[in-house]
């Protein structure tokens, strides 16, 4: 007898040839969190642990068609965006999202990726306004890091009050909720991610800060684990709690790889499985 079909989550994002971030991290998180991962590739990056040396943006209509063709066959229970590269791709994603109900019938997580952790740009400068004005208003949840917060709403977050103010402004852009991630707030012993929903409810997710430079793909992994929770029908705070639990474990198991920043890891799930074999 066939197994029951799992929920389907769709990642609309870029590839990472080094396998640390982007769509590779997304699909690992989807699998580890119990959903089937489908993908709409928006860009192919030439990337390793040291940085991004180039990328090729996929034609916008091909990005949109990947979304439509998955929706039309297997259905989409939740979707997330990562690297979208250009204004034209964002507009194509917005058009397809509206057609298939992302952000209305289907939970839609927007991770507003602007640059890699090495500081290499993954979004054209002139695309930030389109991301802010056309994509974020469709988001069930937007998940910026502190650099993206600064770019999107001009707030320099240094503490929880600043994160709260930034989240309020992000929700003011039209997102259903904002999760302001505190990974970049070096110096604090806890990593605090703050969730604010449009109805004003606030949830704080805190975990011990791990001393590691190997956190490549952390933001993608968190957003994808939250998306998996939403695809499974969880309420947003529960889905974010799942995402935080997943990323905390993945940072705990992050490993060095290459000369630069190694990835956060989902390989503990394989070790668990082998122990039980
Ligand atoms: N040193 C750390 N220890 C534990 N958790 C961390 C650490 N750094 C980041 N995290 C967690 O990882 C997630 C991603 O946070 P971060 O603010 O680094 O986003 P990001 O910049 O988009 O990620 P990245 O650039 O690493 O892909 C958050 O849930 C954060 O709490
Ligand atoms: C294709 C792609 N998408 C997203 C990121 C951001 O991840 P990080 O901030 O860990 O470099 C990346 N480096 N590459």
Automatic annotation (TrEMBL):
NCBIfam families: HMP-P_kinase. This is Bifunctional hydroxymethylpyrimidine kinase/phosphomethylpyrimidine kinase. The keyword Methyltransferase does not apply. It holds the Pfam family Phos_pyr_kin. SUPFAM superfamilies: Ribokinase-like. It catalyses: 4-amino-5-hydroxymethyl-2-methylpyrimidine + ATP = 4-amino-2-methyl-5-(phosphooxymethyl)pyrimidine + ADP + H(+); 4-amino-2-methyl-5-(phosphooxymethyl)pyrimidine + ATP = 4-amino-2-methyl-5-(diphosphooxymethyl)pyrimidine + ADP. Residues 16-264 form the Pyridoxamine kinase/Phosphomethylpyrimidine kinase domain. It comes from the Bacteria. InterPro entries: HMP/HMP-P_kinase_dom, PM/HMP-P_kinase-1, Ribokinase-like. Keywords: Kinase, Thiamine biosynthesis, Transferase. Catalyzes the phosphorylation of hydroxymethylpyrimidine phosphate (HMP-P) to HMP-PP, and of HMP to HMP-P. PANTHER family: HYDROXYMETHYLPYRIMIDINE_PHOSPHOMETHYLPYRIMIDINE KINASE THI20-RELATED (PTHR20858:SF17), PHOSPHOMETHYLPYRIMIDINE KINASE (PTHR20858).
